[in-house]
Amino acid sequence: MPAVPIEASTSSADRAAAEPSAPPAVLRQMFQYMRHGIALYDSEQRLILANPLAEKLTGLAPGSMRPGRLFSAILEDQAAAGLFGEGSAGRAAFEARRRIDRSRPERALLHGVQGRVLEAITDPTQDGGFVVTLTDVSARSRAEKALAAKAATLEAMVGNLHQGIALFDPDRCLVVVNRLMEDLASLSAGTLRPGQSLDEFLAACLAGGEGDPRPGSEFARQTAIAGPLQPIRYIQPGVGGRVLDVASDPMPDGGFVISVTDITRLSNAEAQARTQARLLRTTIETMQHGIVLFGPDRRLLKYNDRAKLDFGLPVTAQRVGQHFDDLLREQAALGVFGTGPDADRHLEMALVS
Question: 93: closest CA among 129, 118, 60?
Fold first, then answer.
């Protein structure tokens, strides 16, 4: 009968017992120097062991967390050290902490001593006790507060812009939108919400009456031509006679931002200026007097047909931009100032005028 190998005849329990384990001294050293405060309690809520960092993080003096002390007594010491804050708010936080059901996992943030922010996690153990793990998350908390402050500042800036703004991520989902965008689209507050797709965003805008409500809306047409990752710009009539300047610009992360500006006043002013310019041209052209307008640099800006006859110049001449002195010399050459010495004298007087 062949011999059976020793390994094959050994049970898994025997093998586990035979495997080397960390010496108690090594485990104690790991426990003492780990970067978390640890406190283990038994089923009667008496402390079994705790590492020095558990005392330091909660503001207790060395030796305060001695094995055998009740959890409630240690909690009182921590409250006296200021772990839960001051005054009535601190006392309320202490009472809430004292009443926690230790048979269930629980997580809390404690604003401890010396400005620390601690993450306290309680986990039940199989024997009915529990273990409390404390982690100093002050740096993370400060970073989160700084980011929240920046986000609030950016939100305030976007909310107070004189443009409607809608920011989309690379998946074409709405990330940020301000109230003015809803106003310009004639929508009630909250209609446009983060998380909406571009199609849902456009459908909401069209439902508000902004632009052509058919599938061939201007933005959809422009997007189909250029795509959301290409700059788009166009002018669109809005509700109530508004004129809107709509632009879409790509973002570095693959998203894009839509901005809408109400340019009604500018558009009306430009239309009024064009109308006034047209009326002025008609008035000048129908006047029975020759009109010639020069700029500060003495160069010709505008003239009417009558001026061509009154000034004695060829009708076909291109005059805009011609210097006043050159125009006078040309008139002199054509005999407008007469002939002989008198003509030269009149030209010199006109040149210095």
Answer: 118
Which structure tokens are listed for 173? 């989902």
CATH architecture of 161-266: 2-Layer Sandwich (3.30)
Q: List, for residues 78-115, the tens digit of each pLDDT value.
A: 888 888 888 888 888 888 888 889 899 999 888 867 77
What is the residue extent of each domain of the chain?
6-140, 161-266, 288-351
DSSP calls for 121-133: EEEE-TTS-EEEE
DSSP 173: B
In sequence order, the β-bridge partners of residue 261 are 245
Closest CA to 299 of 318, 274, 279: 318
Identify the CA nearest to 330 among candidates 301, 345, 351: 351
Query: Which of 1-15, 131-145, 221-235 comes out lowest in average pLDDT?
Result: 1-15
Share of the chain above pLDDT 90, in %: 19
Task: For domain 6-140, give the fold.
Answer: Beta-Lactamase (3.30.450)
Distance CA(65)–CA(112), nearest Å, equals 17
Phi, psi of 327 (to 5 degrees): -65, -40
Nearest by Cα to 344 from 332, 353, 352: 332
Order of strands across the sheet that contains 256-262: 174-177, 164-168, 256-262, 243-250, 232-237
Cβ atoms of 300 and 319 closer than 8 Å: yes
Look up tokens 């780990």; give the residue: 34
Name the phi and psi angles at 199, rounded to 5: -65, -40
Topology agreement, domain 6-140 and domain 161-266: yes
Sign of CA dihedral 13, 15, 16, 18: positive
